[in-house]
Specification:
- The chain is α+β, with helices and mostly antiparallel strands.
- It has one domain: Thiol Ester Dehydrase, Chain A (Roll), CATH 3.10.129.10.
- It has three helices and six strands.
- The longest helix has 15 residues.
């Protein structure tokens, strides 16, 4: 029961100096918190604050992550992250993101999360979230 992708407004951020390596390039590990921030904001744009989800006992740990790096980013570059969300059945979401700087594609990422309860057992995503994504 895969749904078509739901697109949310792009998220913007700047590469911080601490996120660069000795060559002045954004370190590959810096992309993980950027993608997490984009996922949390994307859920919020759909009306599902991640904090509220956790308060209600719903967690979404990363199950699978894939990033293809195309071009480097440097200190103070502005990055625009475009994220699309699809439901993968009743228990997982897939966040597909592209990162852009100026007119260049910087990276593409696919992050799959699985819904779990507080004990880490896989559970269903809320029906209203699935409905919003499918709308």
């Amino acid at each position: 029961m895969d749904t078509p992708p739901k697109t949310v407004p792009p998220h913007r951020l700047r590469v911080r100096y601490a996120e660069t390596d000795q060559m002045g390039v954004a370190h590959h590990a810096a992309y993980l918190p950027w993608l997490e921030e984009a996922r949390i904001i994307a859920l919020g744009e759909l009306g599902f604050a991640y904090r509220r989800c956790e308060e209600q006992g719903l967690f979404m740990p990363v199950h699978c992550l894939e990033i293809s790096y195309r071009r480097p980013l440097r200190f103070d570059d502005e990055v625009e992250i475009h994220t699309r969300i699809t439901a993968q059945g009743r228990t997982a979401l897939c966040f597909m993101s592209t990162l852009h700087h100026a007119d260049s594609l910087i990276a593409e990422a696919r992050v799959q999360v699985v819904a779990t309860d507080a004990q880490g057992r896989v559970c269903r995503l809320p029906a209203e979230l699935l409905q919003v994504i499918a709308a």
